[in-house]
Amino acid sequence: RMLDCKEPGCREALAGAPALTDYLCDDCREHFAGLREALDGLGISYTLDKNLVRGFDYYTKTAFEFVSGGLGAQNAIGGGGRYDNLISELGHAPVPAMGFGIGLERLILTLEALGAELPVSGEPQVYMVAAGGSAQKTCLMLAHSLRQAGIRTETDFTGRSIKAQMKTAGKMNARFAVIIGDNEIASEKAAVKDMQTGVQETADFDRLAGYIQTKSQI
Question: How buried is residue 48: exposed, middle or buried, by Cβ count under 10 Å (0-12/13-18/19+)?
Answer without folding.
Answer: exposed
